[in-house]
Design a protein that fits this description.
By secondary structure, this protein is α/β, with parallel strands linked by helices. It is built from 6 helices and 13 strands. 32% of the residues lie in helices and 25% in strands. It is elongated.
């Protein structure tokens, strides 16, 4: 098979390992910087070009798209999908996972246990929202943050209100969540394949 790996850095350990694993199994593997890809969007013969080359003949694509390039990276991945190339992770799944609010709503719809979470637009609703999540301490998260950036633990109601009003004053979208002391600041991350948890 001919595989494409969308990665901005061919020297990353995870990218190198994917290349090695693919080659060990007899696949042809090529690393493409998604930001250097450009597209011809047409209904009859969609195409992706890379440094002057028309990319054709790929069987599958492995996206390694960083959060900072989600918009353009998933556009490139969608183009591969339009061309009939099998994606390891679909573009819609990546965009859903990068949207904290949407991913929480999807998990809640499937009955997955979550911390009580509040979301509002108006600073006038802050006090009621804090009550809704169980009061202080509370966790305040920027929707756009990743890997712990933009996450604040507010120990008191006054601290929570101050942080929330400051974020809202900057026109930032935020979530407010109940603080679960028993978790000890740790998350549980699971890998799900075919509806089954295969690793955590």
């Amino acid at each position: 098979m001919k595989l494409a790996i969308l990665s901005r850095n061919a020297k990353l350990y995870s990218t190198r390992r994917l290349v090695e694993a693919g080659q060990q199994r007899g696949h042809e593997v090529r690393i493409l910087d998604a930001l250097r890809c450009y597209m011809n969007i047409t209904s009859m013969r969609p195409s992706i070009h890379y440094k002057g080359e028309d990319l054709r003949g790929f069987d599958a694509v492995i996206p390694r798209i960083g959060a900072s390039v989600t918009f353009y990276g998933t556009a490139v991945l969608r183009q591969f999908e339009m061309m009939g190339v099998y994606p390891l992770n679909e573009s819609v799944a990546i965009t859903r996972s990068r949207d904290k609010l949407r991913s929480l709503q999807l998990l809640a719809r499937k009955g997955i246990g979550l911390p009580v979470t509040g979301f509002a637009l108006s600073p006038d609703d802050v006090q009621d929202m804090l009550k809704m999540v169980g009061g202080a301490p509370a966790v305040i998260k920027l929707l756009e943050g990743t890997q712990g950036i933009g996450v604040v633990l507010a120990e008191t109601a006054q601290a929570a209100e101050s942080v929330i009003e400051a974020f809202m004053g900057l026109k930032a979208n935020i979530l407010i969540q109940e603080f679960i002391k028993e978790a000890g600041g740790a998350d549980i991350r699971c890998f799900v394949i075919g509806g089954k948890v295969v690793a955590r």
